[in-house]
Amino acid sequence: MSTPDLFATGQGGYAPAEGSAQPGLPEDPQALAELAARSMYDNDPASQALGARVVSVAPGRASMSMTVRRDMLNGHQTCHGGFIFALADSTFAFACNSRNVATVASGATIDFLAPAFEHDVLTANAIESSLAGRTGLYDVDVVNQDGKRIAVFRGRSYRIKGQVVQG
């Protein structure tokens, strides 16, 4: 099963809005989220090495997918939890940086609910649960191609100085 890639399908394009608050950056929050995601992904060799693809992004939300490869399996022939965590963590990062404010993780936890196997297509869906001042809370569900929940991840974010994409 293949999951669409936001960037490969051309959905990630944007046209800067007239009179943007920041010259060269779109005013539309969705277009800005897509631009920030594209910039982040282009500079993210870890997510690229996982084979993780951005499926969708919106302000405070992101979805990424990856196919479990043989080199991701542990001694039980199931996907190593570190790879599942990495997918969830990357998705969390795209969600919390979607407003073009540089944001880092301050902590995260994960609960593994079911095993994932070679060739499974895992999709992580992140949603912003809280954003107050410089801190945020994001919940990420990881499911397989059949919609079975594999893991639940919760990330805490902290906004730092700067932007993902400069105007």
What would you say this structure looks like, in words?
- The chain has helices at 29-42, 45-50, 81-96; strands spanning 53-58, 61-67, 103-112, 121-132, 135-143, 149-159.
- It is an alpha+beta fold.
- It has one domain (29-159): Thiol Ester Dehydrase, Chain A (Roll), CATH 3.10.129.10.
- Strands 1-2-4-5-6-3 form a six-stranded antiparallel β-sheet.
- A hairpin with a 5-residue loop joins strand 5 (135-143) and strand 6 (149-159).
Write a short abstract of this structure.
The protein has 167 residues and is α+β, with helices and mostly antiparallel strands. The protein is 22% helix and 33% strand. It has helices at residues 29-42, 45-50, 81-96; strands spanning 53-58, 61-67, 103-112, 121-132, 135-143, 149-159.
